[in-house]
Amino acid sequence: MDERKVFDGLKKGDRSSLALLWELHSKNVLNLAFQMLKNRDEAEDILMDVFVSVPVRVQGFRGDSAFSTWLYRITVNACLMKLRAAKRHRELEELNHDVIVEENLSRAESVFADGEALQKALAELPAETRGMLWLKDAEEMSIEDLVDVYGMPSGTIKARLSRARTVVREFLKGKL
Amino acid sequence: MREEIDFSSVERLTPRADSFNRVLARLDKQESNVIPFKVISGLALAASVAIVCVSVILSVFSVDTDTENMPMGNIVSLDDVAWYSSLGNEDSCDFEELEESPAISYLTARK
Questions:
Q1: How far apart are CA B111 and CA B57, in angstroms?
Q2: CB atoms closer than 10 angstroms to residue A8
Q3: CB A89 within 8 A of CB A127
Q4: How many domains does chain A have?
């Protein structure tokens, strides 16, 4: 797949290039947004917002990074803006945490071995760190690309990832 | 020990079937909003040019040839002309009717 052709097509406002971009990256954008927002509908909204903004934003995109990195950066910023605008991410996470604890108490221990348990462990993390961990460990993104997405020094990103993994492991260990 | 968290058990979401069509619909709507804006702004510009042209044309045709070369010093208001023409034509100079200012009253009282 030649990203350059997609890039040139998008600059000209070509809808088929946008469709191709959607086919390649929409799933990744959606999953990152979902990891950050923990809400399917809001993640879908972010996905659509990101792709609606692509024809305009691509005019300022120089193509010096991969499309995926560029889209992730837009997605992370869109999610953070949504969380900040709503001013409810902290309350939401605390609320979710309470629900999670209640649900966990009433379920069998085996539930923690599956993906749902991991999702609940991830809910312990701040949204930004959660997205970072998802991109690194689930999407196998490099530290260099994370630096590009988050605009942070690599040392800061590594430290955050390390702390996040510890929190997740401790959460899972404590509940198992 | 493996450092990374194993996300293989986490279910990956897939965008809803109609999501891309909704994206296209929003883009179409944006474009349809841009066209009227261009038309409206073009109309406003054309109207501005028309107003300027009309005002220039009117100013050209409404120039009075008799007063065109009259110096500004000769332009006197009607009130001034009436006042000058009334000088010496009346018995009273209306000095009694002058209103005393508070400052004059104060000076008079001191005397």
A1: 65
A2: 14
A3: yes
A4: 2
Distance of CA B98 to the CA centre of its chain: 42
- Which residues of B fall below an 8 Å CB-CB distance to A? 3-7, 9-16, 19-20, 22-24, 26-27, 30
ipTM: 0.75
Residue among B7, B12, B23 minimizing CB distance to A51 = B23
pLDDT tens for A23-46 read 999 999 999 999 999 999 999 999
Cα–Cα separations (whole angstroms), residue A129 to A162, B15, B21 = 10, 23, 32
Residue ranges making up the domain that contains A1: 1-86
State which of A20, A55, A86 marks the end of a domain: A86
User: Which run of H or E residues covers position A172?
Assistant: helix A154-175
Report the mean per-residue pLDDT for chain A.
85
Q: Across the interface, do B4 and A115 touch by the CB < 8 Å criterion?
A: no
pLDDT in tens, A42-95: 999 999 999 999 999 999 888 888 889 999 999 999 999 998 887 665 665 666
> Which of A29, A61, A86 is at the close of a domain?
A86
A30 and B14 within 8 Å at the Cβ level: the answer is yes
